[in-house]
Structure formats: C-alpha cells, structure tokens
Known about the structure:
Blueprint: E1 2-8, H1 16-26, E2 33-35, H2 49-55, H3 63-75, E3 78-87, E4 90-99, E5 102-108, H4 116-119, E6 128-131, E7 136-139, H5 148-156, E8 161-165, H6 173-184, E9 187-191, E10 196-199, E11 202-206, E12 212-214, E13 220-223, E14 230-236
Parallel strand pairs: 1-2, 2-3, 7-8, 8-9
Antiparallel strand pairs: 1-14, 3-4, 4-5, 6-7, 9-12, 10-11, 12-13
Helix pairs in contact: 1-3
The structure holds acetamide.
Amino acid sequence: MIKVAVIQTNPIFGRIEKNLNNIKKLFLNSADLVVLPELCTTGYQFKNMDEIEKYSEDFTNSFSVDFLTFLAQENNTIIVAGIAEKSNGKYYNSAVVISPNGLLKTYRKINLFYRENIYFSSGKNEPLVVDLGAYKIGVMICFDWIFPEVARSLAKNGADIITHPANLVLPFCQDAMLTRSIENRVFTATANRIGNEARDGIDDLKFTGKSQITSHKGERLTSASLDSEEVIIANIDPRKARDKNINKFNKLL
Ligand code: ACM
C-alpha cells in the first residue's frame, strides 16, 4: 500500500520562502507520496514579465527545489510540486518530481489557462510518467484536466496514480477527475489551492479548494474543504490500476 498525501495551501503572491515554510509546517512525515498545488511557491497571478523573471527559477540552481529536496530527505518521501520555471530565456508553468536524492523529473504544463498564455511557454514534451519502482506516477497540471487525452496518455504510458497540482477556478474539475479515473482506471491526486488572489489591474480570481484523491474505480476517497489549508490522505494499492479489463470482452485501452 502507498500512503498518498495532498496538501491544500493558500500561497501569498511572491513570498517564496514564506510559502515554502508554510508547506513545511503542514507537511506530513509518514506519506510515501506528497502532492502540492500548481505554482505553490509563487502564487498564481503574475502581472508582468518582470514578475515572471523575478520569481521563476532555473531548476539547476533553485532555492525551491533545494528546499523541497531537504523536505523529501527529512520525511523520506516523493514530492510533486508546481513551480514557475525559467530555462533558456523561456518561462514554464512546471511541476517537479523530487525524491530524497533531489530533482528526478520536470513536467512543463501543456495546456495553459487564460493569462498564463501571456507569460508562459507551453510544454512541448509528452505528459510525464515517472517510474518509482513499486508504482508509477503520471504528472499533469491544472487545466490539463479538460483535455481527456492528457490523462489517457499518462494511463497508456503506465501511470498508476495521476498527480495533479492545480490552481482551479472553474467549478467542474473535481467531478471530471472522477471520470478521468473511471475511463483510465487510475488513481488521481489533485492538490488545489484556496483563497482569492486580487492584484492591481487584473481579475480577482477565486480558487476552488476541494483537493481530492480518487480511486481507480472513480470513487472520491477523500476530499478537502473549500476554504481551509489542510492535508488529506488516502492509502491505496497502485497495482489495482493495472488491470484495464472491464470484463473478458471489454478493455479500456
Ligand atoms: C489553471 O489551469 N490554473 C486553471
């Protein structure tokens, strides 16, 4: 069995160190896999390119990656977290997979949402699957949920659990992820944020909370509140995601 934890937070825009220390306070020391929200170190609503340049990080020399690696070491866990990335003059809305030995892999969000299109480049690689030995995780970020192909690609490439850092504003995703579980027979772990982020001159976005973990059968195993920072946990058997036969005649893939 794998103990999966999802941490729902309320980042303060631009306060990377404070946001990471808050994650550390909420952190759970007994989980095998911990999923954090999208852009969980910076907050979501960038106003201009100067802010993107200031707050995004080169993952070869990153305070946030080092901080999370230390947290992974201290707690002997795998962490999936959304962080703004800079690389070769471009900026990406990325998710890192971090082990106690450091950064394992990075996924760059393919389907950018709303104003993200102004600042970030879209990822050009296939959705990421990482083999962790006893189980495989897929990674997608927030708005990727609306395109069933992303979860399908992850399932076809062997993901048992889809990890899903998010900053959700539309109301449909949490229910849609039950369908993504059913149609691909995978577990999912959506880490959403809460709160509002009003910044001068741009829309005041409200994030929908209700982070959740779903089973390979489309059951909601656990769900967080709309408006509190909290940790939710589920113990799952990832091997259950591997039988893709509905019956002896019907196969999902
Ligand atoms: C989103 O993709 N952050 C809505």
